[in-house]
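#onboarding

Welcome to the new folks! Below is a worked example of what a typical request in this channel looks like: someone posts a single protein sequence, and someone else replies with the predicted structure as tokens. Don't worry about understanding the tokens yet, we'll cover that in week two.

Example request:
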Amino acid sequence: MIPKEILNQVKHIEIRATRLVNDLFGGEYESVFKGRGMEFSEVREYVPGDDIRTIDWNVTARSQHPFVKKFTEERELTVVFVVDGSKSLQFGSTEKTKATVAAELAGLLAFSAIKNKDKVGLLIATDHVEKYVPPKKGRSHVLRVLREILYFKPSAKKTNLKAALEHLYRILTRSAVIFVISDFMDSGYEKALKLLDQKHDLIAIQITDEREQTLPDCGLMELQDAETGEMALVNTSDQKFRESYLKTSQRRQEQLDLLFKLTGIDAIKIVAGTSYINPLVKFFLARERRLRR
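Example response:
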């Protein structure tokens, strides 16, 4: 049975997400995520100015009058969230862990999707695919997706994005919008990311925590790798150590930014404990401007 606190979290996310969708993201979502293409609607008589490439020659030959084909955009989309369920997402130096932020982001985008009558699916992965929820429509389905994310209890601690991305590549037969929500503290997934992006519309949402970038000066501190369990005693009062820690995190971020740039993958960076509204709005506006060119 799902604990009451999880149900309360789901309700809280639904209320907040619905408000944001209505106030900020409803129109932006529809404008930046296009349908699968154009589908045939009907034929009508040709009028001057119509594109001659749309002439239906079979109907024209039978009727002895030119007719053209009409098409409408096939609006319905499939949206899939790939959520990193590894132990590193459980970290949080503020009131929210990275996993909580991941759930809130998925909820906001999922409610945007169902407002536009799109299907929503979910894949949760650690070092293997832990849970897959096939895409469906409707509010009750989105609430189930949220419950799955919040109530998720992983059977493993480590990350293997490659396995998750390859799994989606195999099972998704039609084009989809895929949000990969992770801290991307992994390696060896780059080729799988590129291949999936070539077949689908892929957006990377990176969730970080301030303490993964910088350490405070607070003397001796015992650090633990969440995924391996390895412990290390460090002196955070040592300026050289803090500088080395910062350089390492900056180098890792630069490599990730370069990957997204070279592959042309849209990326959104969210810092846990700060508002994710501005980064999302900035993403929607930038993407909309690009599509208008």
